Amino acid sequence: MNMNKKKFAVLGFPIEHSLSPIIHNSFAKQINVDISYSKIKVDLEKFKEVVIQLKDEKFTGVNVTVPLKFEALKVSTSSSEGAKLSKAANCLTFKNNKIIHAENTDGFGLVKDLSNKKIDLMNLKILIIGAGGATSGTLPSLIKCKPKLICVANRTIEKAEKLVHEFSEFYNYKNLQFDSLSLKKFSDYDLIINATSSSLNNNVIEIPKKLLDLKPVLYDMMYGPKSNFFLSQAKGEKKFDGIGMLVEQAAQSFYIWHGFYPHTSKVIKDLESITNGS
């Protein structure tokens, strides 16, 4: 075994579906670096214990997925401004066996993927479903793109309201709104983003017909089998899962850890082939 091999992992619950090891190993080949990247299933209660154990085992860093992103920031000893603002992290870096540095690359990944897909966010009306770590992690990047409206809809409306209040106040952004999942406040959106894990859990999130009739772009941050109920509701041609976002946010993590931003287009195409065959 190469004792100098850098060790990484992705932590989540569930974690079986994760493609992160394939992605990071593909990136590593681009610069001929030998790495170890594993999947670790961990629940909320044991998360801190596992992170500290990996730090002590001389891991370089870990990615963090649902539902552990809020907890990832809490266990950190330092954090980037983006992670601090969103109160969530998806990338932890271990430094000098003492520091656990938290960053959030989700927003970067989402905006980069939408840009790759020729979707200009400026002046768009955007609906985000969910008020968890995925939403709070991407809101800073979305707000900076100056859309006409961002509405956060959540089953527990109080949670969406709290999130909207905090981000509106910090960014002095007047076009951030909230709604319940009944989606009665507004009748037209250009882009609807599913930021929940419903696609992983086979839960149904139904979009009202009046919103779908305008043929908005549907974007699911999650990825997986073709039988995606959220995306199946699309009446327009533009519907995307989160493969591109996954790769672009991973590329940013890879840059943080290795100082090299990898080429992503071929990796995205390869993963689309894998998931479309599932």
Shape: globular
Structural class: alpha/beta
The DSSP helix count reads: 12
Q: Which radius of gyration do the C-alpha atoms yield? A: 18 Å
Mean pLDDT: 92
Order of helices and strands: EHEHEHEHEEHEHEHEEHHEHEHH
- How far is it from the N-terminal to the C-terminal residue, by CA? 33 Å
Q: What fraction of residues sit in β-strands?
A: 15-25%
Number of strands: 12
Tell me the strand order in the biggest sheet: 2-1-3-5-6-4
* Largest sheet features: 6 strands, mixed
Low-confidence stretches: none
Assign a percent range to the helix content: 40-55%
Could you describe the 3D structure shown?
The structure is a single chain. This protein has 278 residues and is an alpha/beta fold. It contains twelve helices and twelve strands. The strands form two sheets. It has a six-stranded mixed beta sheet, sandwiched between helices. Helix 5 crosses helix 6.
Which SSEs are present, and which pair or pack?
Layout: E1 6-12, H1 20-30, E2 35-41, H2 47-56, E3 61-64, H3 69-75, E4 78-79, H4 81-86, E5 91-95, E6 99-103, H5 106-116, E7 125-129, H6 133-144, E8 149-154, H7 157-171, E9 176-180, E10 191-194, H8 198-201, H9 209-212, E11 217-220, H10 229-232, E12 239-240, H11 243-258, H12 265-276
Parallel strand pairs: 1-2, 1-3, 4-6, 7-8, 7-10, 8-9, 10-11, 11-12
Antiparallel strand pairs: 3-5, 5-6
Helix pairs in contact: 1-11, 5-6, 5-11
